[in-house]
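Support request, please re-run this one:
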Amino acid sequence: MKGLLIKDFNLLKNNKQFFVIIMLVGGVFVFAWDTPDFAISYVSIVFTMFTISTISYDEYDNGMVYLFSLPVTRKGYALEKYVFGGIMVLCALAGMSILSWVVVTVKQISYPPEEWAGAAGVCILVAAVLLSLMIPLQFKFEADKSRIVLLFVCGCAALLAYGIVKISLSLGFDIGKAVEGIIVGHPGGMITGCAITGLLVLAVSYLSSVKILEKREF
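Re-run finished. Output below.
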């Protein structure tokens, strides 16, 4: 796995201008708005997407055939993508959090720790869900088809979420206020709960990815 991580970080190094621009855009969002929540989420999700780009680089010009001719197992390759994605999310979250705290201190904006905890928890969960969907889809359908399937899955998920919210409101239960209460009252629990949920989702996704790779011919 160490060699695969070094390979992906070298790809990251070759695209450093892109990530510098993304960080600058995130910094502009932090300065422009009174709350840095969106900037933290935006940068974290964009960094997460780069994990999928590394798979496309690996598949280019029969690269997978060469990779698996080396002492690289399909289980190890799949696991490395999840580990690399997690590292990217945590680095983006840490970098933007530090930048956000500097900006809110300079601008003297009130940014309670529980609000940051809510934003961080949501980022972790959303990034985990994106990775859990996109990595196996990329392995199964490759770049172009996987994007179409992902759009379809996200559309279905959005419709399901909309339906759940509407049904809950009709029953007199406001999910938004309930989530806000959890964030404000239990910021540590919010992050822990999102992290545990994300790990469970990623574990199921990893097992699916391994099965897909083992059946796929290169």
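The chain has one domain: 2-215. The chain is about 85% helix and 0% strand.
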